[in-house]
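Lab notebook: predicted structure, single chain.

Context: the supervisor wants predicted structures on file for every construct in the current expression panel, including those that have not yet been purified. This is the next one on the list. No modifications to the sequence; it matches the entry in the shared construct table.
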Amino acid sequence: MPQISLVPEEADLFIDYIIDQSVMKNFARTVKMEKPTKYIRAMGFGEGKMLYPGHSFDESKYKKQWKQNSITLQAQKVRGCVVIYDDDLEENIEGSAFKDHIMRVVTAKIANELEYANYMADTHGYNSWCGDDIESLWDGWRYIITHSYDSNQPYWNKVTGSAHIKSACICESGAACESGDESTEADFELAGRIAELSTVEPYALEIKYGMMLKNMPPKYSKHKKDFVFLNAPVVTDDYLMALEKRGTALGDKAITDGDITFYHRVPIIDVPLMPIDLGSDTPDTPDHYGKVGGGDYTDVILTVKNNLIIGMQRDIKIESQREAADEATYVYYNMKFALAIENVDEVVFLKCLEHKC
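Prediction complete. Output recorded below exactly as produced.
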């Protein structure tokens, strides 16, 4: 088999195949990078007013405070090899058809591995990824969000600020707080799952999607048509099961409607590879928070379409090596990849969420 050198159009097709396998393909912005490093900059005017009454305006009111934020996409190389046996190739393996076949074979698996790493990767040993894990190469979206909460954090946005992080492990002090830790800083009356029915009159159903929407800064309300909830399928199932228990038309619709689920016109998108076995951050288990395998918790993200960024360098190389003794072709491939979030302030993040499965 000959070496395969992808021209730019074919490299784009390879990237498109990967994106087509990803649930987040319609909600993350893909930046095709020409070089290993790409900068995304934002500018703002800092604190203070822009307008003053004409009779009191003087040079002391001149706007001199500027802020800027720079996000660096630093592509990291990932490599792999797939063995394709002669019996699997059938007969149509020459020319462009062969290239297309190889691209489709490898991208399905690549997409799944990238999707998980997109979310859970970190370069700080938080989850103790080993050297053979691509999760050790960059900081994933979860790490970026949870490490943006003040100006001392690496992903604080100097122009807009931080992500808005809420915990489903704590609840307001009172009779309704039957599980979880009571706190005056709680955002929810009820800890636990995405939808919880109070055992205290008036037996209200608390849906945490609503509080997440409420905590999105009002200045982004004009983007609401592009808002999206991203969570594991079990979270959506918990929400629908809670609706089913209500003797209402909405409860009936939850049972019979097989279309995309919405909350207040915002789509709830199932992301199968979002983990559901994370540790909590309760006082009893501070070292387990966000650790894979540390518990039975998961997350929900509320953000706007295209706020999450995937950077892919177009310089993709695929090489093949024929091994007659194995009756197989070894196909080696490598690519460069980077992640970022353009505006963490336009993210509401719900952590420590229980689920029923």
